[in-house]
Amino acid sequence: MADTNCDLKSLSPLQLFERVTEQGEKVRALKAGKAPKDEIDAAVRMLLSLKLSYKTTTGQDYQAGLPPRDLVLINNGTTKEEDEDFVDPWTVQTSNAKGVDYDKLIVRFGSSKIDTDLINRIERATGQKPHRFLRRGIFFSHRDMDQILDAYENKKSFYLYTGRGPSSQAMHVGHLIPFIFTKWLQEVFDVPLVIQLTDDEKYLWKDLTTEKAYEYSRENAKDIIACGFDVNKTFIFSDLDYLGTSTGFYRNIVKVQKHVTFNQVKGIFGFTDSDCIGKISFPAIQAAPSFSSSFPQIFNGKENIQCLIPCAIDQDPYFRMTRDVAPRIGQPKPALLHSVFFPALQGAQTKMSASDPNSSIFLTDTPKQIKTKINKHAFSGGRDTIEEHRKYGGNCDVDVSFMYLTFFLEDDDRLEQLKQAYTSGELLTGELKKVLIETLQPLIAAHQERRKQVTDEIVKQFMTPRKLAFEF
Prior knowledge:
Strand 9, helix 16 and strand 10 form a beta-alpha-beta unit. 40% of the residues are buried. Helix 12 packs across helix 14 and helix 17 runs antiparallel to helix 21. The strands form 2 sheets. Strands 4-5-10-9-6-7-8 form a 7-stranded mixed β-sheet, sandwiched between helices. A 3-stranded antiparallel β-sheet has the order 1-2-3, with helices on one face. It has 472 residues and is an alpha/beta fold. The protein folds into 3 domains: 46 residues, Helix Hairpins, CATH 1.10.287.10; 259 residues, HUPs (Rossmann fold); 87 residues, Tyrosyl-Transfer RNA Synthetase (Orthogonal Bundle). It contains 22 helices and 10 strands. It is globular, with a radius of gyration of 23 Å. Keywords: Aminoacyl-tRNA synthetase, ATP-binding, Ligase, Nucleotide-binding, Phosphoprotein, Protein biosynthesis. Belongs to the class-I aminoacyl-tRNA synthetase family. One of its GO terms (molecular function) is tryptophan-tRNA ligase activity. Pfam families: tRNA-synt_1b, WHEP-TRS.
């Protein structure tokens, strides 16, 4: 037992929480299976020991379905309160010019780092060069990706689920990140994809009518389709539309709702007594697409198809809740791949906003607007004078133009050359910005051209519940 206690001390609060939850499930299974009394007693003793460790570490009693409220503050190694990162599904703030400290975020959230071994395994499984988002640590954290690969290597299928909260008509380049990566995953693994448009969430959180929220979802669907998804393998749905037509989907929502208390959603999401009941019940709606039985037309009613969710890490609280509920409603836990946050033009400390056209490059921007925004607003890691820059070099860790190039420039060698040249002072800020302008202008022009080809009829095809090109 001493060794076990020693091991437990190295676990984060969330990892401890998950250990208690798993042990509780084990005890229930042993009792249900009428296991020998000594085996049940040993499992119960382990459960009590885990609960005690949890209380010692967190200062709070274990409550099923209520993870420790550690998702909010991630200290950047300083004692000053203003130097802490704030991360939840609606707000991302950091005082560090380099952005959020993702290594600390992994520890706090209890996820696993996407390391070289996992990237190599993905390459072996798919026979494809890993996507630049994997090579460069843009997708940096995961939950149970090993299980997905185990299943895939044993010829067992899975499906992809990602989403978009349509809060405005125009999307920006940062919104493309999960879709670019999801498209690659779909192609290399050849699996079905469902994309949730949470227009109901935007109606509940923002000053929008249901009609306007639904209109935004259809407009955003055009940008998503323009990323090149295959209509035969992809189902895009609006919550305001699909929930009323799918009995499987609504049943899963109700099951999740029954197993999560008001106290738990307050603990996970910070809801207050003055929040409308729609907000409080919404997490169950975002959880439901994680279960294949929510899409009987695609999966033939099967409930055991595992789901993989590529998303930004601020969405993780929704799926921590989902993963806690899943075993209790007889469903497999969804696996996750987490991405870093896409920085605003003014720097990683500021937030991109649809209401501030200068905070990002929008998919509707003209080549001239792209050039002006980058030259005028992109936060620089360069020095105050050319002389100083030539002598001391620039800082790629805080330079937004370089950050954007890590997302969008495909050539690894070229990116490394730019980094060396900028860090040494050989390349000036204006020259680095020029490289970014020349990278983004054709990329966005090509996207706009593809979007023009997306008719209302094509949107309807993607958004009609139907069987996809897979047999289950």
